[in-house]
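RECORD TYPE: inverse folding
INPUT: structure tokens
STRUCTURE:
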């Protein structure tokens, strides 16, 4: 508990709007109750002793003052300036580095910076500095497009980490041609006079093609596609030795009606569902999860590789699995008509969807039918062609139970954000020809509810056994973040208490559902929350309103789940003391940081490739109009989000129309001289002006004259 309090204390003190308060007020702002105050005080004292927090005049709590020399991570802006984020948090936050003072640092570099100027504005001390040394490079290889320049060959890097062209000399050694997508290794970094110099080490193919753009994202994010010979040999060996007829002291439930429900293109079926009634009429939900731990010995070559990868990566039209496909799509996958080993969670429910009892077992199943979410949805709507009668009955019972669980969890404070994802439509050659929001039919919620219940049941068991394990945690948002959210939603004409409860946030999200402002409000709520992560800390999951939570249901594609399976196995073998002994030898905190990083990396890679493919499609549609909603306002202009494609675009301030336009931070609006205004959440039809695929930019302009929305309201 002290560790979780340390994290929350530092986060609150780092907040841009934090005003120094006394210790008791700090505890109140963090929502610390009287029972937890002693733990909070221990955490604070440890931070103070380590010099991470200070008590200044008037007994006010702050972070240490910014020193003259700062070591931190550099974050560059395309306009030439940047910020240094101190490795040790300070009371003055990030250090501003003006253009011309960034040396040759790029985003992600660990740098040394010197404060060069201090000034007070609006009662706040502002600092600016210059980078004096780069201690550690974030990377020295970049992906970009080879271009012919009057003075020679250059590579224009993709993305925003490094935006300056890189000069390259000998392009013939790798057979590179103009407009090829290439990987370049830096030989010398840029200076005020000269571009960076590099050498091409790999040619990926012509820029703009699906294969080359996919390869570029894989290289950019350092994703490992192939498995080494040791891993392949181990995978083949354990797959070849698997015999579904040998139950290995497992509960045989191969005669039960069991289904899997997954996306149409899925091959790694992690989870299967059964549902029966006991003698008292209570429903018994069976959540059956592929027993990957049976095939992977701890610290084997394949286990080490899975830990490094952390998770599978799902790119548009391509999967990079955590495990070789002979396992992930083969003997581990819960394919219909095949005997498969599982770890099963049995949850008994009353009619209101309350859990009456929990039971765990090693089992062997034989899936009755594999369904897609769309097939399951059609069955629930009465279209039952090609579906077995017993499966139809099962699906209807699953829907009834899921709705009861959802109602109970919502009453307990579970939050559901509505952030529509985009699904690409590709032709046979891999070109994106269209895109649309992903399917969100109710079978998705059915599986989500059942998986959450199983995850919670396993975490509750392991907590009762008093054993360390990898949890999935989501911290409660701090008071300042909630206050800022409350102020922001006023820009939408909505109200939210300064310290909202889960019910207040639920009401807000329900109110904006299906409205133009829905996406922007959901994004605002998401940004006010901490990101969920993996850690051994026992702080629960705020968004799910869950005290005990972990990930258990996807061990084929997530290493965290595999770790939990191994701990559960010790319990099933009645060897929990050995589990405690082994977990004490693991650095769960470090493993948690690593797999949280690989999870974020996978999400970023998928998102960026999706943006690239949509931009390539839109680059052929210059002048077309898009229905959008305003999602952000700054001094630079208006950020909009396409309702159909889910991609963001920018209307520069100078393109808004005649007259002068100004951003009003207090009202979160951009106001023109004629009284016309633009506000968050409003609909806007825009016209595509230009597309810059390497920079991941879509520039648009309003397709119609901007009117006074205040009069409309």
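DESIGNED SEQUENCE:
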């Amino acid at each position: 508990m002290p560790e979780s309090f340390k994290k929350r204390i530092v986060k609150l003190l780092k907040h841009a709007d934090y005003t120094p308060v006394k210790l008791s007020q700090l505890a109140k702002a963090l929502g610390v109750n009287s029972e937890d105050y002693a733990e909070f005080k221990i955490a604070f004292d440890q931070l103070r002793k380590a010099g991470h927090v200070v008590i200044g005049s008037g007994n006010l709590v702050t972070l240490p003052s910014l020193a003259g020399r700062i070591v931190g991570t550099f974050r560059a802006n395309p306009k030439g300036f940047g910020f240094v984020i101190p490795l040790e948090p300070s009371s003055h936050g990030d250090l501003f580095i003006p253009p011309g003072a960034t040396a040759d640092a790029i985003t992600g570099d660990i740098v040394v910076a010197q404060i060069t100027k201090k000034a007070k504005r609006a009662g706040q001390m502002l600092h600016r500095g210059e980078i004096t040394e780069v201690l550690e490079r974030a990377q020295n290889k970049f992906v970009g497009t080879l271009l012919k320049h009057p003075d020679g060959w250059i590579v224009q890097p993709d993305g925003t980490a490094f935006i300056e062209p890189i000069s390259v000399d000998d392009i013939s050694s790798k057979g590179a041609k103009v407009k090829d997508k290439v990987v370049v290794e830096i030989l010398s970094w840029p200076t005020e006079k000269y571009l960076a110099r590099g050498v091409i080490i790999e040619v990926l193919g012509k820029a703009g093609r699906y294969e080359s753009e996919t390869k570029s994202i894989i290289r950019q994010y350092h994703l490992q596609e192939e498995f080494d010979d040791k891993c392949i040999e181990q995978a083949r060996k354990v797959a070849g030795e698997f015999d579904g007829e040998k139950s290995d002291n497992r509960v045989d439930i191969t005669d039960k009606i069991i289904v899997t429900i997954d996306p149409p293109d899925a091959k790694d079926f992690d989870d299967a569902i059964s549902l029966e009634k006991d003698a008292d009429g209570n429903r018994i939900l069976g959540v059956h999860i592929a027993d990957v731990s049976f095939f992977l010995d701890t610290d084997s070559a394949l286990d080490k590789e899975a830990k490094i990868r952390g998770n599978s990566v799902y790119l548009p039209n391509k999967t990079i699995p955590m495990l070789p496909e002979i396992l992930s799509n083969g003997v581990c996958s819960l394919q219909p008509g095949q005997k498969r080993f599982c770890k099963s969670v049995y949850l008994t429910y009353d009619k209101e969807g309350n859990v009456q009892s929990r039971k765990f077992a090693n089992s062997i199943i034989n899936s009755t039918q594999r369904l897609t979410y769309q097939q399951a949805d059609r069955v629930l709507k009465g279209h039952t062609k090609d579906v077995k009668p017993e499966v139809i009955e099962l699906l209807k019972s699953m829907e009834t139970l899921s709705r009861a669980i959802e109602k109970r969890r919502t009453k307990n404070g579970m939050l559901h954000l509505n952030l529509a994802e985009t699904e690409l439509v590709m032709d046979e050659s891999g070109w994106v020809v269209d895109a649309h929001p992903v399917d969100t039919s109710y079978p998705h919620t059915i599986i989500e509810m059942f998986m959450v219940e199983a995850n919670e049941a396993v975490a509750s068991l392991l907590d009762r056994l008093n054993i360390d394990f990898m949890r999935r945690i989501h911290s409660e948002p701090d008071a300042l973040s909630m206050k800022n959210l409350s102020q922001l939603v006023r820009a939408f004409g909505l109200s939210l208490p300064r310290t909202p409860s889960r019910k207040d946030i639920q009401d807000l999200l329900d109110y904006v559902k299906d409205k133009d402002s829905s996406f922007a409000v959901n994004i605002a709520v998401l940004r006010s929350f901490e990101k969920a992560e993996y850690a051994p800390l026992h702080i629960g999951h705020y968004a799910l309103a869950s005290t005990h939570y972990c990930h258990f249901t996807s061990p084929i594609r997530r290493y965290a789940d595999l770790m939990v399976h191994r701990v559960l196995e010790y319990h099933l073998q009645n060897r929990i003391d050995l589990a405690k002994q082994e977990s004490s030898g693991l650095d769960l905190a470090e493993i948690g940081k690593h797999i949280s990083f690989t999870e974020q990396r996978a999400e970023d890679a998928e998102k960026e490739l999706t943006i690239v493919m949509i931009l390539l499609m839109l680059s052929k549609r210059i002048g077309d109009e898009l229905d959008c909603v305003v999602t952000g306002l700054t001094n630079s202009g208006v950020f909009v989000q396409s309702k159909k494609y889910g991609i963001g675009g920018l209307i520069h301030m100078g393109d808004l129309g005649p007259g002068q336009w100004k951003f009003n931070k207090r009202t979160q609006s951009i106001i023109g001289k004629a009284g016309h205004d633009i506000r968050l959440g409003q609909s806007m039809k825009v016209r595509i002006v230009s597309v810059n695929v390497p920079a991941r930019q879509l520039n648009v302009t309003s397709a119609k004259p901007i009117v006074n929305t205040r009069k409309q309201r």
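NOTES: The radius of gyration is 27 Å.
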